[in-house]
Amino acid sequence: MTDVKTDVKTDAQADAQASAAALIASNRRRRSIRRWIAIGTLPLTLASLFFVGKLLSMYAIAHQSISAYVVDDYAGSESAARGLEFLNWFEPYKAPFNIGTALAGAEELPDARAKLEEALELANGLEVCGVRINLALVIERMGDAAREGGDGAGAAQLYGEALTVVVETPEECNSDEAQKQSSDPNRDMEDTLDNSEDRLKKKQQQQEQQQEQQPEDGEPEEEPQQPQPDEQKLQELQDKLEQGTQERDQQQGDDAPGGGTDKPW
Questions:
Q1: Which of 45, 97, 106, 224 is the most exposed place for a label (fewest CB within 10 A)?
Q2: With the C-alpha atoms ordered 219, 222, 223, 228, is the resulting torsion angle positive or negative?
Q3: What residues contact 91, with CB distance under 8 A and at least 6 apart?
C-alpha cells in the first residue's frame, strides 16, 4: 500500500515538474518572439520618430525664416531657410523658394531668380502658384534695374520673360484653394497676377517704343544743316574787314611815337 502511494506521489511530482518545464519553455519562446518582434520593428519605430522630429523641425525652421523676413532680416531668413535643404522629402520646393525670396529682399536678384527657378522645377500642383508670382516679380525688378542702368533692350527682354512666367501660370492658381495655400494670405493671387500682367505689358511696350525712337548702333545722327551764306555777301564782308584793318594800321602809325609798331589787340 505504501508503495502504491509512493508511486502516485512520484508521478504527480513528475507531472508537476514537466508542467513547470513546459511553462518555462513557453515563456522563453514568448520572450524570444517579443525580442525578435522588437528588433524587427525597431527601424520602423526609429523612422517614425525621425519623421515626427523632422516634421516639427521643418515647421520651426520655416517659422524662423518667415519671422526674419518680416523684420527685414534677409540674411537671417536665408540662413534659416537653408536649414530646410537637408533631407526635405515632404516639400522639396520650400527650401529654394524661401531662400530665393530672402535673396530678393536683399536685392540679390540674379541669385534669387536662380533659386526660384529651382523651386519651380520641384513644385507640384498648386505649389507652383506662389513660386511663379515671386519669380515674375524678381525678373521684373531685374528689368527695372536694367532700365535704370540705361540698358533699354535688356529691360525689355526681362519684362518679356517676366510676362511669360505670369501668362503661363495655371488657371487653378485663381481658385480659393490656391489662395489658402499662399505664402502671403494678405495678397490675393488673382489680383496680383492680373496687375503684374498689365504692368509688365506697359513696361515692355514703353521700352520697345524707346528703342524704336533711338538710332540704331553704328548709324550716326544727322547733324542739322546750317544755312549757307551768299557768296557775294561773304566777299563784301571780307572787303570791309580788309579796309577797316588798313585804316586802323594807318591811324596807329600816325599816333604812335617812334614808328609803326602794332599794339596787341
A1: 224
A2: positive
A3: 58, 127
Reading the block at residue 151, the C-alpha cell is: 540698358
3-class secondary structure, 170:
coil
Q: Please choose, from the candidates 178, 66, 197, the residue with its C-alpha nearest in 3D space to the C-alpha of residue 129.
A: 178
Q: How many beta carbons lie within 10 A of that of residue 101, not counting itself?
A: 28
H helices present in 71-126, as ranges: 74-82, 94-105, 109-122
Question: Mind listing the pLDDT tens digit for each residue in 142-182?
Answer: 999 999 999 999 999 999 999 999 999 999 999 989 888 88
Q: Is 31 helix (H, G, I), strand (E, B) or coil?
A: helix
Helix/strand number for the chain, H first, E second: 9, 0
Could you tell me which residues come within 8 angstroms of residue 199 by beta carbon, excluding any fewer than 6 positions away?
140
Residue 159 · residue 143 · CB < 8 Å: yes
Angstrom CA distances, 112 to 9, 136, 164, stand at 91, 11, 18
User: DSSP string covering 216-227, please?
Assistant: PTT-PPPPPPPP
126-138 pLDDT tens trace = 999 999 999 999 9
Quote the CA–CA distance of 145 and 58 in Å, as a whole number.
Answer: 35
Q: Quick check: 68 and 77 in contact, CB under 8 A?
A: yes
User: Among residues 158, 66, 166, which one has the least CA distance to residue 109?
Assistant: 158
Tell me which residue of 76, 81, 108, 53 sits closest to 183, measured CA to CA.
Answer: 81
Alpha carbon 212 to its chain centroid, in Å, reads 31
Q: Which of 13-27, 166-180, 183-197 has the lowest mean pLDDT?
A: 13-27
142 residue type, one letter: M
CA-CA distances (angstroms) from residue 192 to 46, 199, 252? 44, 10, 85
